[in-house]
């Protein structure tokens, strides 16, 4: 049973209240505060979430990473701007905010977001290395498209072409500006991924930071739908945060940022329910094992790939 204080705080103990107040007073946690502050967050329940946000009021504005993530000025969690601030590791100049921002970027969830960008760039590099002819990539929920920008910046002669779908026109405008030099190989589509239809086939379909917001039913629906757009020999990779994410409590308590976090077993089950064969399904992860990646390969089929079929006929007729 927790001791109650005489203050307005019914969940946080007096010593925790004073500790969090001291962090706010000194402009944020120092590195040695990370563990004790983590422990305060870990012991909170739903009621404690509003208590901690009350204590953090002086920093809960759009000038801090925490405040921006909580305020959701674009109307939803995980907008292109907060994600790009995470990639840039933006730190406020205001001395009352800067240590909070440094702390934010040190959290597992923030590091995992940065890691997933590197993961995607590696996947693109592998695809590019085998690209003797142009290859088609589809990105679902492209946000700031910083990953694509960094890849193209490093490989300006790459043979990859990208279709990028995002529901938010502001995300598309932002991504277009960032990728201004590469618009000749980028095709932005403003659309809900649930509705997109195409006659095209893709070598790679990638999504990160999107399926975490979908319920199981929609997740499986999208796997089925997009698997049909993967070329024979191609791959679909879908990111999803792990249910072991150590930043979960902090995200809920401080940011009101909720995800459908999942286990590798959940992801494999969805792929199987969507009709993918077990031998074509794997689950990968970034180094912190917070962002998981469901990988579904589409086996090569010489009879369904026209070009391969023609060369097969040529070989067999000679
Ligand atoms: C968290 S961001 C991820 C951005 C990018 N994939 C990354 O990892 O940096 C999610 C993006 O998905 C977009 N989005 C959310 N729901 C969507 C939907 N149903 N269809 C298309 N885009 C959607 C949002 O507008 C946002 O830009």
List the helices and strands and how they pair.
Layout: H1 14-25, H2 34-42, H3 46-55, H4 65-71, H5 80-88, H6 98-106, H7 108-129, E1 135-140, H8 146-154, E2 160-166, H9 169-178, E3 186-190, E4 202-207, H10 216-227, E5 230-241, H11 248-255, H12 264-273, E6 281-285, E7 291-297, H13 306-317
Parallel strand pairs: 1-2, 1-4, 2-3, 4-5
Antiparallel strand pairs: 5-7, 6-7
Helix pairs in contact: 7-8
Bound molecules: S-adenosylmethionine.
Give a short overview.
The protein contains 13 helices and 7 strands. By secondary structure, the protein is an alpha/beta fold. Bound molecules: S-adenosylmethionine.
Notes on the structure:
This protein folds into two domains: 14-109, no CATH class; 115-297, Vaccinia Virus protein VP39 (Rossmann fold, 3-Layer(aba) Sandwich), CATH 3.40.50. It has 13 helices and seven strands. It has helices spanning 14-25, 34-42, 46-55, 65-71, 80-88, 98-106, 108-129, 146-154, 169-178, 216-227, 248-255, 264-273, 306-317; strands at residues 135-140, 160-166, 186-190, 202-207, 230-241, 281-285, 291-297. It has a seven-stranded mixed sheet, sandwiched between helices. It is globular, with a radius of gyration of 23 Å. The relative contact order is 0.11. Residues 1-6 have low confidence and may be disordered. The structure holds S-adenosylmethionine. Residues 78, 80, 83, 116, 141-143, 147, 165-168, 171, 192-194, 208-210 line the site of S-adenosylmethionine.
